[in-house]
C-alpha cells in the first residue's frame, strides 16, 4: 500500500484479517489473462485501411489539383495569347470563356471590356485623324479656288500695266522727236488714269481675297481663341469661299439681327460654316445653278450665339436625316465624298463649342440647321 488513506481503510475494515497494516505492505495480487489476438488483427486491418484511404485521397487530390491547374493554366494562357494578339494589332482576337469558373469568366469579361475600350480609342483616333485630313483637304480646295480667282485680277493688272508701259514708250519716243502735242499728252494722261484704276481695283480685289483666305486658313490651322465680331467674321468666311460660290452661281446672304463681339475659337466656327456651305453646294444644289443660302445670326440674353443656316436646295430625304451626321455617311462617295463634312460640324458644335445643332429638312424644300452654343467656349482642357 502506497497511500496512508488505504492503510487506514484496511486497518479499520470489519472483515480485515489483521489491523496492523503499514505503508508498503502487499494486501494481495490480482492476475487477469485474456486473448487479444483478434483485436490486434482488427486494429492492424483498420490501420491498413486508414493508410490506404489516406494514400488514395492523396492521389485523388493530386489528380484533381493537376486537372484544375491545367484547366486554369490553359484558360490563362488562352487569355494571355489573346492579349498579345490584341497588343500586336489583331483586333479580331476574342476570348469566349463566359461559361467558365467565376474568376476566369471575370478575366474573360475584363478582356472584352479592355478590347472594346481599345477599339473605341482607336476609332476616335482614326476619326480625329480623318477630321484633320479633311480639314487640310478643305484648306487645299479653298487655296486652289482662291489661287484661280486671284489669278484673274492679277492677270488683268499685269495686262493693264504692260499696255501702260507700251504707251509710255511711245510718249518717250514722241518727246525725243519733238512730235508730242497737247492732245497726245491729254490722251496719254486719260489712258494712264484709266489703266491705273484698273490695276488698282484688281489688286485691291486680289488683296481682299488673299486677306480673307489668310485669316480663315490661319484660324483653322491654329484653333486658338481670339475676339471676333460675329457678322464680320462670318462674312470673311463667305468671302474666302467666293470662288466656289461664283462657279456654282450660288449666293450667300448673311443677316445679322443682333451682332455681338465675343471671345471664341474662330477656326472652329470657320470649319462649321465652311462645311455647311460646301454641303449645300455639293448635295443641296448639285448641278443646279443659282442656289441661295441665308445665314441668320444673333446673340441672346443667356449669353448664347444662335446661327440659323438655310438653303433652298433639294433637301435631305427623311430616311437619311438620322444618319447624315454620322461619320462616313455620304450619298456622293462615287464623286469623292468622304462622309465627314456634317460629322465634323456635329462634333465641333456639340463637343468643342459645347452647343447643340438641330436639322430640319423637307425634301425639295431645302435644309435648315439651327446651331446654338455659348459665347464663352470651354477651354481645350475641358474638351472630351
Please give a structural write-up:
- This protein has a domain at 223-384: Heat Shock Protein 90 (2-Layer Sandwich).
- It is of the alpha+beta class.
- It is rod-shaped.
- β4 (292-299) and β5 (304-311) form a beta hairpin.
- A five-stranded mixed β-sheet has the order 2-4-5-7-6, covered by helices on one side.
- Helix content is 59%, strand content 12%.
- The model has no long low-confidence stretch (mean pLDDT 78).
Brief characterization of the structure:
The protein has 384 residues and is of the alpha+beta class. It is built from 8 helices and 7 strands, in the order ααααβααββαββαββ.
Keywords:
single chain, about 375 residues, Heat Shock Protein 90, five-stranded mixed sheet, two-stranded antiparallel sheet, about 60% helix, about 10% strand, phosphorelay sensor kinase activity, transmembrane, kinase
Classify the secondary structure makeup into a structural class.
Answer: alpha+beta
CATH uppermost class of the domain at 223-384: Alpha Beta
- Kindly report the spatial arrangement of strands forming the biggest sheet: 2-4-5-7-6
Approximate shape: rod-shaped
Helix content: 55-70%
What is the CATH topology descriptor of the domain at 223-384? Answer: Heat Shock Protein 90
Mean pLDDT: 78
**Portion in strands:** 5-15%
The CA-CA distance between the termini, in Å, is 100 Å
CATH architecture of the domain at 223-384: 2-Layer Sandwich
Q: What is the H-and-E element order? A: HHHHEHHEEHEEHEE
Number of helices: 8
Total strand segments: 7
Radius of gyration: 49 Å
CATH superfamily of the domain at 223-384: Histidine kinase-like ATPase, C-terminal domain
Largest sheet: 5 strands, mixed
Poorly predicted runs of 5 or more residues: none
Amino acid at each position: 500500500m502506497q497511500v496512508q488513506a488505504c492503510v487506514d481503510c484496511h486497518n479499520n475494515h470489519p472483515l480485515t484479517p489483521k489491523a496492523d497494516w503499514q505503508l508498503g505492505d502487499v494486501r494481495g495480487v490480482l492476475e487477469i489473462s485474456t486473448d487479444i489476438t483478434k483485436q490486434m488483427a482488427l486494429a492492424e486491418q483498420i490501420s491498413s485501411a486508414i493508410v490506404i484511404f489516406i494514400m488514395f485521397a492523396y492521389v485523388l487530390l493530386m489528380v484533381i489539383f493537376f486537372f484544375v491547374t491545367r484547366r486554369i493554366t490553359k484558360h490563362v494562357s488562352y487569355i494571355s495569347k489573346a492579349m498579345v494578339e490584341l497588343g500586336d494589332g489583331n483586333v479580331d482576337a476574342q476570348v469566349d470563356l463566359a461559361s467558365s469558373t467565376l474568376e476566369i469568366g471575370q478575366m474573360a469579361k475584363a478582356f472584352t471590356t479592355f478590347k472594346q475600350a481599345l477599339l473605341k480609342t482607336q476609332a476616335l483616333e482614326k476619326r480625329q485623324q480623318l477630321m484633320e485630313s479633311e480639314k487640310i483637304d478643305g484648306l487645299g480646295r479653298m487655296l486652289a479656288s482662291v489661287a484661280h480667282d486671284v489669278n484673274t485680277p492679277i492677270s488683268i493688272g499685269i495686262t493693264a500695266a504692260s499696255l501702260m508701259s507700251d504707251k509710255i514708250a511711245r510718249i518717250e519716243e514722241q518727246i525725243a522727236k519733238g512730235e508730242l502735242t497737247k492732245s497726245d499728252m491729254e490722251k496719254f494722261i486719260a489712258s494712264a488714269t484709266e489703266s491705273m484704276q484698273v490695276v488698282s481695283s484688281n489688286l485691291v480685289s486680289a488683296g481682299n481675297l488673299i486677306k480673307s483666305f489668310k485669316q480663315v486658313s490661319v484660324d483653322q490651322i491654329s484653333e486658338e481663341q481670339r475676339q471676333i465680331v460675329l457678322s464680320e467674321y462670318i462674312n470673311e468666311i463667305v468671302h474666302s469661299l467666293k470662288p466656289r460660290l461664283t462657279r456654282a452661281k450660288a449666293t450667300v446672304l448673311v443677316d445679322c439681327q443682333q451682332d455681338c463681339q465675343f471671345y471664341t475659337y474662330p477656326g472652329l466656327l470657320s470649319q462649321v460654316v465652311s462645311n455647311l456651305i460646301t454641303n449645300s453646294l455639293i448635295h443641296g444644289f448639285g448641278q443646279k445653278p443659282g442656289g441661295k443660302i441665308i445665314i441668320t445670326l444673333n446673340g441672346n440674353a443667356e449669353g448664347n450665339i444662335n446661327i440659323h443656316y438655310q438653303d433652298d436646295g433639294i433637301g435631305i430625304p427623311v430616311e437619311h436625316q438620322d444618319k447624315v451626321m454620322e461619320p462616313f455617311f455620304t450619298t456622293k462617295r462615287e464623286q469623292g465624298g468622304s462622309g465627314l463634312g456634317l460629322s465634323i460640324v456635329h462634333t465641333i458644335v456639340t463637343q468643342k463649342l459645347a452647343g447643340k445643332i438641330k436639322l430640319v429638312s423637307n425634301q425639295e424644300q431645302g435644309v435648315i440647321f439651327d446651331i446654338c452654343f455659348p459665347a464663352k467656349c470651354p477651354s481645350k482642357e475641358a474638351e472630351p
